[in-house]
């Protein structure tokens, strides 16, 4: 690429590999001039309920709705079929406070 073409692109707001992203202080392009991927959100606990057991699992919060739809519960949530009980932080059924 010609130097004049590079200068024109820079003036139009394009970046260089490893260079800063215009308008985003502290963010740099990677070596292919792509924006870095946003960080993944921290995982959250879920009580994974199946036919024979309940297991505490850590999941991506973006999948929470899918887990709840098929019957999983977050710690502190009601135990299905056991009125007056909730799951504690370890996904063990305990009497509700």
TrEMBL record:
Protein name as annotated: Unannotated protein
Organism: freshwater metagenome
